């Protein structure tokens, strides 16, 4: 599943946010495949369509699409030189699909800022510099190994060239995501600055409803996406039942929690979408890349489904709701039989036919 690594300076609210994330686990405990690890927090992608479908099918349970968050890498200036928490903490983040950088925006004289003042722009530069340095170190170690492996033909020259080009960009101070280097051949290195970034501004409650301040922070990171949240409120929300949580959110001018926003923006940043399956046992959302074709979508359920794919019966969510049942959708010609070239649409309700 989709995994997002969390980084940030110390004392910016990472633990507070992560605590809210891990308490959220109870929701995820429903997943048959869930192996819950202490350094993983899960947020379900909010999707009101699932409730509606579960009603139509009288499903016993609902399984939304999960977004996992791993670890907390606290990074200080000089971390890449081993002064701070450093590389050990970056190991898990290397495997993440994207990085969420938590940036302090809240003011609180009781909470020390490691750099002496609350300055989101300067904090982001510190973190970005450390991530660039960490990638340079990874490449400087990898390049001599690649040179040997190229001699023995264990790797192709594209790997060494990719690594050298990436290092040159980083030496100029360019994060790999902003460079033109093709890092596909060196994907296994898990270079941090090549990953998509999401910025999480942990701000005072008053800022949440301050349009000018919001716009200012969003502009700071554009074209990357920003989520503004108050980590303290997030950790309170987790302990409330849905009605009380909605009330607290409304009192801060929000209609969605910061964690929910983070899940949605994670999906959008990584170009993902969901399709839906529904029946009496469960209604479930499945994660696929935007543009995935029907067999690939089937493969997310089971690899055998992809191999043995025959066809898919597809009803759009809206058509299913309008007709009220699969049988009615069929009799109104709203159930389409699609083949292996069908490009999945967000919210397709699907039943696959396959050979095993
Ligand atoms: P970490 O070092 O990044 O993991 O930061 P923590 O989550 O441990 O937070 C550091 C301190 O800041 C703790 O005392 C938190 O209670 C406090 N803190 C975290 N988020 C907020 C916030 O949104 N507002 C305020 N006022 N304090 C916060």
TrEMBL record:
Transmembrane segments: none annotated. Residues 271-354 form the TGS domain. Residues 2-249 form the OBG-type G domain. The keyword Nucleotide-binding applies. Gene3D superfamilies: 3.10.20.30, P-loop containing nucleotide triphosphate hydrolases, TGS-like domain. Keywords: ATP-binding, Magnesium, Metal-binding, Nucleotide-binding. The keyword Lipid metabolism does not apply. ATP binds at residues 11-16. It holds the Pfam family MMR_HSR1. Its cofactor is Mg(2+). InterPro entries: ATPase_YchF/OLA1 (IPR004396), Beta-grasp_dom_sf (IPR012675), G_OBG (IPR031167), GTP-bd (IPR006073), P-loop_NTPase (IPR027417), TGS (IPR004095), TGS-like (IPR012676), TGS-like_dom_sf (IPR023192). PANTHER family: OBG GTPASE FAMILY (PTHR23305), OBG-TYPE G DOMAIN-CONTAINING PROTEIN (PTHR23305:SF18). ATPase that binds to both the 70S ribosome and the 50S ribosomal subunit in a nucleotide-independent manner. Belongs to the TRAFAC class OBG-HflX-like GTPase superfamily. OBG GTPase family. YchF/OLA1 subfamily. This is Ribosome-binding ATPase YchF. The gene is ychF.
């Amino acid at each position: 599943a989709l995994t997002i690594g969390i980084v940030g300076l110390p004392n910016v609210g990472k633990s507070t946010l992560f605590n809210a994330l891990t308490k959220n686990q109870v929701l995820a405990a429903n997943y048959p495949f869930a192996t819950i690890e202490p350094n993983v927090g899960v947020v379900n992608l909010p999707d009101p369509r699932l409730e509606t479908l579960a009603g139509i099918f009288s499903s016993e349970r609902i399984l939304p699409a999960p977004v996992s968050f791993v670890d907390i890498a606290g990074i200080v200036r000089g971390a890449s030189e081993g002064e701070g928490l450093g590389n050990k903490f970056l190991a898990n983040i290397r495997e993440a699909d994207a990085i969420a950088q938590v940036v302090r925006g809240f003011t609180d004289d009781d909470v020390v800022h490691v750099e002496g003042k609350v300055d989101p722009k300067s904090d982001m530069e510190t973190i970005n510099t450390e991530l660039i340095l960490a990638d340079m170190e990874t490449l400087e170690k990898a390049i001599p190994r690649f040179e040997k492996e190229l001699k023995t033909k264990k790797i192709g020259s594209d790997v060494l060239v990719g690594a050298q080009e990436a290092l040159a960009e980083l030496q100029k101070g360019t994060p790999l995501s902003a460079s033109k280097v093709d890092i596909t051949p060196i994907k296994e290195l898990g270079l941090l600055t090549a990953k998509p970034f999401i910025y999480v501004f942990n701000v005072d409650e008053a800022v949440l409803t301050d349009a000018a301040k919001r716009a200012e922070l969003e502009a700071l990171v554009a074209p990357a996406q920003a989520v503004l949240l108050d980590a303290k409120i997030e950790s309170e929300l987790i302990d409330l039942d849905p009605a009380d949580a909605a009330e607290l959110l409304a009192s801060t001018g929000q209609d969605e929690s910061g964690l929910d926003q983070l899940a949605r923006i994670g999906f959008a940043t990584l170009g993902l979408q969901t399709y839906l399956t529904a029946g009496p046992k469960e209604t479930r959302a499945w994660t696929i890349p935007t543009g995935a074709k029907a067999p690939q979508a089937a493969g997310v359920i089971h690899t055998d489904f992809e191999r043995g794919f025959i066809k898919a019966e597809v009803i759009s969510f809206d058509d299913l709701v309008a007709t009220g049942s699969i049988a009615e959708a069929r009799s109104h010609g709203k159930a389409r039989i699609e083949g292996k070239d069908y490009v999945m649409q967000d919210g397709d309700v699907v039943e696959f036919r396959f050979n095993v």
